[in-house]
Amino acid sequence: MKIIGINFFIISAAFTSALIVLSAIAGELLHFYPVSFEVMFPFFVTIAVGEWGKTRADSNFDMIAAQSNSLFRWVLLRYVITFGISSLFAVFCMVFSSAFRYELPLWELLIIYFPPAFFLSSLCALFGIYYTGEHIATLACGIVWLIVLLIRSLLRISGVEYIYLFIRYADEQNSVWLWNKCIVTVIGLSLWGIIYSKCIRTDMF
Description:
The protein is mainly α. 70% of the residues lie in helices and 0% in strands. It has eight helices and no strands. The protein has helices spanning 6-25, 32-52, 61-67, 71-97, 106-128, 136-150, 167-170, 177-203. Helix 1 packs antiparallel against helix 2 (32-52), helix 2 packs antiparallel against helix 4 and helix 2 packs antiparallel against helix 6. It is globular, with a radius of gyration of 18 Å.
């Protein structure tokens, strides 16, 4: 079954190009990399997973599920394709943005990008197997994304810095950001444990 079409590539290319242009004109006052690769690109990847990698909201879900040996493999495949291609656009943006400004090395950009992108998109995949309505999974994750941005002030509470999703954007000098990224990644993996258990129960019927 066809998962993504030409619109996905057009929108992804346009979004990536816009960020590359922004990197050239943003000036020195904007912390471009945390904003772009910890906040904006993870949200775009989440939209991609919700809109192009949708599962139960797919109009052909019943037919695809009947022909699949395992719903989990089907859900995982759709996720890997949409997340993987979107992440390639993110890496492309990182490389070309570095030609206009250099704030962080590429390896560090990958570290600040992957955990929030993985967590939010995994949450979207989880919502996608529960809700049949179009765009509901994307909307729910968009609300989560916005709430996390709005509760930035909670970083004043000890311990919150270990789980806050956008730690480099919110507090660039915080020394625990690597631990934060590890914890967020583990939480994302736990979401896939829930997805697996849900799919196994569904496969039994």
